[in-house]
Task: structure prediction
Amino acid sequence: MDLHIRIKNLRNSVRPKHLVTFVWALALSFLAGSLSYSLSQHEISNTVEALPGTQTLEWQVDPADSMVAGIRRFLLRKLEESGELRERYWQRDYSSEDAYISSIRDNRKRFRTYIGAVDQRVPVRALHLIETTLKSSLIGKASGYTIRAVRWPVLEGVEAEGLWLEPEYAPFAQIIALPDADWAPEMLAGLNDTLPPEMHIARRLAEAGCRVLVPLLISRRDTWSGNPDIRMTNQPHREYVYRKAYEMGRHIIGYEVQKVLAAVDWFSKQGEVPIGITGDGEGGLIAFYSAALDDRIDGTLVSGYFQDRIGVWREPIYRNVWGLLTEFGDAEIAGMIAPRHLIIEASRGPEVNGPPEPRNGRRGAAPGRLTTPSLSSVRTEFERARTYFDNLEVPENISLIVSGDGSGPPGSREALEAFLLSLGISHLPDNMDTETPEDLRVPRNDDDRMRRQIRQLMDYTEHLVRESERTRAEFWNQADPLSIESWEKSIDWYRKYMWEEIIGRLPDPSLPVAPRTRLKYESSHWKGYEVALDVWPEVFAYGILLVPGDLQPGEQRPVVVCQHGLEGRPEQVVDPHIESPYHAFGAQLADRGYIVYAPQNPYIGGDRFRVLQRMANPLKKSLFSVIVGQHQQMLDWLKSLPFVNDNRIAFYGLSYGGKTAMRVPALLRDYCLSICSADFNEWVWKNTSTDFRASYMFTGEYEMYEFNLGNTFNYAEMAGLIAPRPFMVERGHHDGVAIDEWVAYEFAQVRRLYTRLGIPENTDIEYFDGPHEIHGVGTFQFLNEHLR
Result:
């Protein structure tokens, strides 16, 4: 038949979709080999560079590397913009002090939630002396005051420990003095010569006639970070506590703020005596946050901490606070202290180059550095903070004091005098820089004290983990499984909550798709094209599209999106010549006639991609915030292709791709089916267990932790957001990602839900005698049953 007649017949047989031109029909005919034309298969391959309707992809770059770099630039810009956007969360009323405090109540509530200081404290009726028949609680004394080792209750099973400096006569003020995390309370009390006398802040305040409590902070050492029967790590103690707590909506910061506020509870029962708080470095952070939450604190001195927080993602991970910069820079936090007194001291802060060095098998800590805040950053943020005090007409209640050139020692005489003046004390004793207390200590093991404090916090968090299933059940009590219709309607709120509060929702993609493609693979059954799609400025989606060669004109087929895992690439999914645990399952599915799309996901490059999570979290976003946006754009493009059945787009991912299979289809309903391979398990246990060898508590995957996930969405709940769409789990008996019992326990909840909905056939699990890999037997059958 003449070529132009064949083309005319083909044109009449195809109904273009989304205004796709006739050139698509011609391309389909080429792909099917149905045109009697003089070009050989080889010549066609050299001629057809791109899919019709797309521009030719002309990159000469590594798409994975470029993707991670682009997302980094995107997030850096979002961080820069965050300060300008915070004001939308505030409705400050400056008409009176009471009106102002009332107007920031919701902001305080959110701040308390973000730092995890949400639990009810136990009553503090008294300080408890720490002593035995061999050791007295009295560990030091000087003219005018004594020093005792004490503890006080905070949460159920959690106590604070520290030193109590009690003046001989009625105190002029009551002060909580917080050391940096690497300083013992004894250092501030002058009981050793580690610090110069002018830095013995607790001693100097006691000599001024103040009652002083010096809490112990969790240190940056790694002595107790790990399980000696499984694995020890080089995570700082603060990171070790942080990881478990973060998953449960708590935080090392929140726990230590609670210890401070428990001390304030006790102070407030000791009569009408002013209450103040001061801290340096990590102690400055805790003091600052505590004062922002509690109006009972009259005066606050923060040293070596306050600055513009836009670079918080570079700091150690135990300073990572979900959503912080969306609403709270240091200036906004200072605004929650207003109209009370706040003294900012620009002084030397802790210099920390990173976690303890890896050694003897100890590794897995997240990177992060601390440096002295630059004076320019302190001044800039201070000027922002001062506006809140000016608007309340109390400009005198905030002051900036510079120690040396901004890197001098904390606790300068000028700073302490201003601090005491804010509490009604007019001056400091002149001789306070020379006298030190008498040391009455018998040998004590300070390691035991630190170990005890860490153990209490870990045990408290473990209790939250044990209760989390009940907590999630209460959270989900509005979901209605009486019918498919009632279930789908009732889970809309939960889907929105997961997207906005757990994953973090970015605006929908802002750029046109602008697809660019080029031919990369040819086989006897299909052709493979590289595909690049724009998403947001600096952010693109990339993948490989496999188009079966036997597509008929006008035919539409289902798509399986096949997702690689950690440090993977789409080539491993689609190239039969690459040996890997993926077993080229995308190519296998294309051989069976499916259209296959294998995306490049950004979890590649070690710390280069993990740092993206750190950059995103303060913006109330995560790595999956970006991934979901990429999939939104992928889905829109796939649905626009005339040979795609846009109601039959499935997702199938291995390992980290299995994590994606749990999260992305739960949020994007355009996926009609999801298969989670080599990842499904009791996810909360996986993240928080200190008894399971494959727990993320011992490894370098610090980006795994999602704030408050444990109280809201385990994998069964994520599967509930996928329901009633088909959902399947693929599980190798020898896969070290979890154990069969955990997988079965969590999947039983999924099976029960689908059964209650009357669709037990829409979910399945296949166990096979193999490791962490694609098996591709039961899952392929599942796809055939639900996509054909």
User: Anything to note?
Assistant: The first helix runs from residue 3 to 13. The chain is about 40% helix and 20% strand. The CA atoms of residues 751 and 763 lie 7 Å apart. Confidence is low (pLDDT under 50) at residues 1-48.
